[in-house]
Every structure is written in structure tokens, then in C-alpha cells.
Write a structure and sequence with these properties.
The chain is built from nine helices and three strands; from the N terminus they run αααααααααβββ. It has 291 residues and is mainly α.
Amino acid sequence: MIFYLLFIFGINNPVVHAEVANVSAENLVPVSDYHQYSDEGPCTALTALIHFFLLATFTWNTLYGINVFLIFKTNTISGTPQWFPKVSLAVGWGLPAIIVGISLGSTYRVEDPLGYRQEEFCWLAFLDPKQNFDMRKPMFWGFLLPLVIMLISNMAILLHFAQNICKTNPNLNRSHQSPLKKKILSSFSLAVMLGLSWVTGYMLLITHEPTLHLILSIVFCVCNTTQGIQIFILFTLRSVIKSNPGILKAMNAPKIAIHRKGFFLWKVKTEESNEIYRPTDPDSAEMSSLS
């Protein structure tokens, strides 16, 4: 929530130099990126906060996946070790802080803040003066690289999870086995929680075909902006409805009774080539013949 609020209200730099105003609508490197300006305003602080909370989100997603892995490893619902919550707190908030600190310390200078962030937007720098993606910029090693490591580990955890729930336990009879629909829904729920929809962002970086790039952009925006809603529906709303089945009954629309008669017609050929249709309605005892 904090990340989205910072992104919505703080992504635009409140202090923009005059040379940038005329080119802000174009997808070009701002003129100010070729010059050095002393840092002004809160843009660097906002960039660091957005950087931190976005990394923290994925770090906690990964820790959730590790928790699921430990539960399956011990085959008990209380399989999480006692030390795991404390380690999670340290890693969940400490690892993003370390990465942000290293990024700031190695690239940021008061007299040249654009080594860490962009000019028009309060986000990490990633382009060189020739508009090429630069791996030496903090966008790559301070965000994309840690994120891809987390996503790869999350995908491995999801595959391990799917493999375990799809195994058939010979000690269970058919009535106690989970249906395929429930297994697929469980795997999808875990994939949503692990944030694997962000893989489409990496596909965008390597896609140059315009149509495919547009499709991936739409998928990326829709999946990631609704991730919170998906988590709410899959983990909260489903649990509430499952524990209170009366909610669904109360939400059902009232049924209107309509008198209906069902007929099943079949053609019977006679010697006179007459077609006889027989109604199967139990209330009707008559038979009509059509020539």
C-alpha cells in the first residue's frame, strides 16, 4: 500500500529544470541528463522509499514461499521452525534496506543526483546518454537483478508445491483425494502471492515486436495493478465464504417459478411416409400426427 501511494503521489519530480519542460511528453532522455545539477527537493528521498518498499514487497513474497516450502518439507501445518519468524523480520526489512543503502552510497552524489535517479521521474536511473540500457546503473543491479533472483526462487517453490499436491497418496481413498480443480486453484493462489506475474515485465524488456509488446504491456498492467484484489479474493473472501456458506445463499437471486413442459420429438417413418411426433410430457395423453 505504501509503495502504491508513493508511486501515485510521488513518482513525478516536483522540481524539474526549465530545459526539461519542453521534452517531457517525448520518450527521450531529458536534456538535463547531460548536465550536472545539485540535488533539489525530495525526489531522491522518494526514489529511495519507492525502491525500498517495492523490494520489501518481493522479499516478503519470497519469504512466504519459503514458509510454504518448509511446511511441505516437514509434512505438517506447524512445520515452520521457531527461528523462521525472527529471521523473516530481519531479512524482510533488512535486505531491501541494504540494497538501497548500497545503491545510494555508490551512485548518489549531492552535486550529481542523476547517478542514482532520473530527472523527470523519481525512479532509478537506467539509461546512458545514448539512450541505451546501462547495466552499471542502479536500475539493473539494485532492482532487476535482485528481483529476478527472487522470482526464479519463487518459481522453483511453485513447481515444488504443484508437484507435491499433485501426487496421489495411496493411503487415501477416492473420497478424500483433492479434485484437480482445487489443486489448480491452490497453485494459482500461490503464484499470485509470490508475485510471478512480474515475469511479464522481464519479457517486456526483451520484446521488440510492437504487437506482442502491447499485449504484454496490457497483461503486465492488469495483473500487477490487481494483485492486491486477487490476494483478497483468493485468501480472504474465499475463506469467509467457505466458513459462512449462508452468504452465498443470501446473495442468490430469487427464483421465479415458471410452468414449463418439456417435449422430446422423434421422427417415425411409416409405409405411407407419414411423420408422427410423440410428446413425452407425462401430462399429455394425446398423440398428434402430421402428414
